[in-house]
Design brief:
By secondary structure, the protein is α/β, with parallel strands linked by helices. It contains 13 helices and 14 strands. The strands form 3 sheets. The chain has an 8-stranded mixed β-sheet with strand order 6-7-8-3-9-10-13-12, sandwiched between helices. Strands 2-1-4-5 form a 4-stranded antiparallel β-sheet.
C-alpha cells in the first residue's frame, strides 16, 4: 500500500450529488420529490490501482459510476480527471475525455447490439475517434479479439452466437480498443457462471498489468471485490460509509454496516464457515426519496444513539486506524466487538442449514 499511496491521483470525486426528479402531471409536469441516488460522495482513485465499490442494491454504486464516466450529469459537486473538472466539459473536450474512460456493463448481451456483427461493435471506438479504418481497423479488431481470448475468425458473427462469457469478453475488447486510462466495471461478472467469472476476472487483472489500467470495480460479491481491489469503498443509501485498503477493511471493519455486510460473504472453508456468525440487519433500507436525517444507517444500526439521528458523521480517520482508513460513524466498531452478541439491534443467524428430523 506504500507504493499505491505514491501513485498520482487519476480521479477525484468531490462532494458529488446526483438526484433524479420525480414529476407528476399530464400537460404541466411538476416536480414533487427527488430520488437521492448519490448524496455527497468523496472518493479518490489513483493511477494503476483498482478501487472496489460494494453495497446493497439501490445504494448508488452504478449511478456513481455513470457520473464518473460522464453518462449522468451531476446535480452538484466536481469530478476531476487528471485535474480537469469533467462536469463542465462539452464538445471536443468531452469526446477526448470519453476516449480515456471506458465502461464494461453488467449485462453482456444487453450492452451489445444484437443486429450488428461483433467486428463492427468492437470497431466502433476506432471509427468514432478516427483511429483506424478499412483493413487497418479490421486488423486491430482481430488483434483485440485474440487479446481477450476470442477467435479472430469469428469477426463476422453476431452476439447471439457467443456464450455469456464470450459476450463479456467482447465488451472488454470494445472498452480496451482506444487504450483508456480508466475502465469502470459495473458488476461485470454478476451475470456469469462462477467458473466463467474467474476467467473474466483473471483476464481483467492480466490486462491491468499489461496496459497499466486503472479500474473502478463495482460488485455484489464481496469475495470478488476483495480479490481484485487495492482499496474498497462501502456505500449505503447514496453515501460512502467506509473506505480503506482491501485487506484492512475486510480484517477490521469499523462501520457497523460494513461489519454486517462482510458477515454475509460466503466462506469456502467449511470448518471456518461453521464457526462464522452471520449478522442479519433488522428493518428495511429506507427510501432514497426521503432518506433519514443524520447518519442514514441509524434506523438499522445496533449502536445508534440520539446523536446519530441529527448529526451526520464525517468520513474521517478514527483513532488507531491507518491514514487511508476512513469511517463515517460516531460510534465505530471496536476490535473484538461482536455486534450480534452484544447489541439488541442486530440478531444472530446460524449459517448451518437445518436438517429434517428423522423418525426413529
Amino acid at each position: 500500500m506504500h507504493a499505491a499511496a505514491e501513485r498520482e491521483t487519476l480521479v477525484s470525486v468531490q462532494g458529488v450529488v446526483k438526484h433524479f426528479p420525480i414529476k407528476q402531471g399530464i400537460v404541466f409536469k411538476k416536480e414533487v420529490a427527488r430520488v437521492h441516488a448519490v448524496d455527497g460522495v468523496d472518493l479518490e482513485v489513483r493511477s494503476g490501482e483498482t478501487v472496489g465499490i460494494v453495497g446493497e442494491s439501490g445504494s448508488g454504486k452504478s449511478t456513481l459510476a455513470r457520473c464518473v464516466t460522464g453518462l449522468h450529469p451531476v446535480t452538484s459537486g466536481r469530478i476531476l480527471f487528471e485535474g480537469t473538472d469533467i462536469t463542465k466539459l462539452s464538445g471536443a473536450g468531452l469526446k477526448a475525455f470519453r476516449k480515456d474512460v471506458q465502461m464494461i456493463f453488467q449485462d453482456p448481451y444487453g450492452s451489445l447490439n444484437p443486429r450488428r456483427r461483433v467486428g463492427s461493435i468492437i470497431g466502433d471506438p476506432f471509427a468514432i475517434h478516427g483511429l483506424a479504418s478499412g483493413a487497418e481497423r479490421k486488423k486491430r479488431v482481430q488483434e483485440l479479439m485474440e487479446l481477450v481470448g476470442l477467435n479472430p475468425e469469428h469477426y463476422n458473427r453476431f452476439p447471439a452466437e457467443f456464450s455469456g462469457g464470450q459476450r463479456q469478453r467482447i465488451g472488454v475488447a470494445r472498452a480496451l480498443a482506444v487504450r483508456p486510462k480508466l475502465i469502470v466495471c459495473d458488476e461485470p461478472v454478476s451475470a456469469l457462471d462462477v467458473s466463467i467469472q474467474a476467467q473474466v476476472i483473471n483476464l481483467l487483472k492480466d490486462l491491468q498489468r499489461e496496459f497499466g489500467l486503472t479500474y473502478i470495480f463495482i460488485a455484489h460479491d464481496l469475495s470478488v471485490v476483495r480479490y481484485v481491489s487495492d482499496r474498497v469503498g462501502v456505500m449505503y443509501l447514496g453515501r460512502i460509509g467506509e473506505a480503506a485498503a482491501a485487506g484492512d477493511l475486510y480484517e477490521r471493519p469499523r462501520h457497523p454496516y460494513s461489519a454486517a455486510l462482510l458477515s454475509a460473504a460466503s466462506i469456502a472453508d467449511p470448518d471456518e464457515a461453521e464457526r462464522a456468525e452471520r449478522i442479519v440487519l433488522i428493518g428495511d433500507v429506507p427510501s432514497p426519496i426521503d432518506p433519514p436525517s443524520g447518519c442514514r444507517f441509524h434506523p438499522r444500526c445496533p449502536k445508534a444513539e440520539e446523536r446519530c439521528t441529527v448529526d451526520e458523521p464525517e468520513l474521517e480517520v478514527k483513532e488507531g486506524d491507518a491514514a487511508d482508513h476512513l469511517t463515517a460513524c460516531h460510534f465505530p466498531v471496536e476490535p473484538g466487538e461482536n455486534l450480534a452478541r452484544e447489541h439488541a439491534g442486530i440478531r444472530q443467524e446460524s449459517t448451518e442449514p437445518e436438517l429434517p428430523e428423522v423418525e426413529q
